[in-house]
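Practice problem: predict the structure.
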Amino acid sequence: MLLAGIDIGTLTCRLLIGRVSEDGRLTEVHSDRRILRLGEGVDRDHLLRPAAIARVVETLRDWRTVINSHHVDAQIAVATSAVRNARNREEFLGRVMQEVGFEVEVISGGEEARRTLLGIRSGLPAGVTTILGLDIGGGSTEFILDRPGHAPVMHSIEIGVVRLTERLLTQDPPAPDQIRAARELIMKETEQIKPVLGTLAGTTLVGTAGSITTLAAMAQKLSTYEPLRIHNYRLSLDTIRALEREILGRTKAQRREMPGLETGREEVIVAGVLILRGVMETLGFTEGLVSDLGLREGILLDLAAHRRRSNG
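Answer:
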């Protein structure tokens, strides 16, 4: 079946049109992503700003035309942290429905983690079984521990790259006391979930979403984003520390010249590398596997499974 899915994130909006086979394999037909920063200012006043809403609605209008041209069997749109936390979310959802015709599902952090796991699992290399999925988003970060024979353990913390940037990393480049405060917050939040996760011996850390894939591109100094070189790339803690030194020593303008850094991420990549390093050090990982698959793929796989159950 041919399906379309839209992930409306705090920082980035993503479109995927894909074909899901009877055995559950997903093949991409068309994709797009745009950094729109819907969650700008939400951490401070819990409101989606008119300009940010307008950017997203305009993009969704473009994508409606693309989806219609593909004659899909079904479609789904989900929204995550920024919309979850906004006091005016009903206004946003109503405007999207009225102007674009999309009924957007606002998913919880736990549900976001569940569907992200579906995406990650669909592209793991052979031999990787017990995993801790790490999804660093714009407004929150999801942890998904998945072990054969056990129910997945999922936990979400309200730290994401946009939220952390606006809350603590306000100078350009961030001052040492801001960096220190961010490190302390990341360590505190990660320490609190250690009892929930339990022992992680034998567990592979698998990171997904834009911060981690961007760091993988930067580590390889890619001039353009190459999914085949990003997906299943192994990113060491030593490499993360080296990238962090380079990133923290530059202004936003100077970061734009760094190979592999996607335009629009030059501000929030500071928070991204701090979160990834902090999580790896706190949980005792020296290496992580990078997945180019995540929530966007997971929502399509979940929709396909739901349609198969409904059709008997």
